[in-house]
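Fill in residues.
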């Protein structure tokens, strides 16, 4: 059964659950299980009772003995991993416990999200949601949005899936009109640079918004933002692995070109010493970047076909 909103009827009227998915489990023989996912900004005191009511109504409406409920809280940075509804009568006790995922916990796990992006498009959605909620500086939102765009083009997803995810990210991370123009220009520049093998999303987006293609300007803006991000990420990585850093390192990072920063990021992940990060290799090495940051991964090689279905 495809995920969709499901309408339930109770004595108070009609209610909707956000997503309902039917799956098969083989843990105790083959059986079908309903998974109810409720997405909430913040959970108030009545939320556990509502989750219990939905769970009970789903069992009754669908005739399924097993309904697992999960709450996703988009506006919470922390909180319990489980919530509980409990009701006590004179002789009976009703208790319902369900798992909770607070998206804010992933703010400290961006490298892991980047790794998951190759096979799980929800990693991109989580990163977009975190930026939309927590980054209120317009320039930083622009930089982050551009890097998510580059990451999507490098993901290897099928072209229609990439387009759908770009539209979703564009809707989630809003920008002032002037920066929207720069975002569209950067998108055109990325598409030209990566030689995207299909009709571009940003040509249509630019035409709809009356944005001139301005490829050279957009490419320069995107590369400059990327270079600044790479420099900051490399500085944090080196400080974490080799602190204290000697004088002059920050100046060296802030003036280095983008390609050099990418090479240093590759090496900084597993280099045994600080000097090894900056020492030129004796023979050509791959310049793939793995999980240092959105920006680092965004520079990795793109597949020739660009076709991989979501979830593969």
């Amino acid at each position: 059964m495809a995920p969709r909103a499901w309408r339930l009827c109770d004595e108070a009227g009609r209610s909707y659950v956000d997503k309902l998915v039917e799956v098969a489990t083989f843990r105790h023989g083959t059986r079908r299980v309903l998974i109810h996912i409720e997405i909430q900004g913040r959970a108030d005191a009545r939320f556990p009772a509502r989750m219990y009511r939905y769970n009970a109504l789903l069992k009754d409406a669908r005739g399924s003995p097993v309904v697992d409920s999960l709450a996703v809280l988009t506006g919470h940075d922390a909180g319990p991993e489980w919530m509980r509804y409990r009701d006590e009568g004179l002789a009976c006790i009703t208790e319902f416990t369900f798992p909770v995922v607070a998206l804010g916990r992933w703010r400290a796990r961006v490298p892991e999200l980047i790794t998951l992006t190759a096979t799980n498009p929800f990693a991109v959605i989580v990163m977009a949601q975190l930026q939309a909620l927590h980054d209120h500086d317009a320039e930083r939102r622009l930089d982050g949005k551009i890097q998510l765009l580059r990451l999507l083009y490098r993901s290897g997803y099928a072209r229609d899936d990439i387009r759908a995810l770009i539209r979703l990210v564009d809707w989630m991370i809003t920008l002032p009109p002037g920066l929207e123009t720069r975002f569209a220009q950067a998108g055109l520049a990325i598409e030209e640079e990566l030689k995207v093998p299909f009709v571009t999303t940003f040509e249509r987006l630019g035409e709809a918004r009356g944005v001139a293609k301005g490829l050279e300007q957009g490419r320069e803006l995107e590369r400059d933002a990327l270079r600044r991000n790479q420099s900051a990420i490399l500085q944090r990585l080196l400080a974490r692995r080799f602190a204290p850093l000697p004088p002059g390192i920050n100046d060296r990072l802030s003036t280095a070109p983008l390609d050099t920063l990418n090479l240093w990021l590759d090496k900084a992940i597993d280099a045994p010493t600080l000097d090894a990060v900056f020492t030129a290799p004796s023979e050509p090495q791959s310049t793939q970047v793995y999980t240092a940051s959105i920006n680092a991964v965004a520079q990795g090689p793109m597949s020739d076909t660009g076709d991989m279905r979501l979830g593969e």
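Residues 118-297 form one domain.
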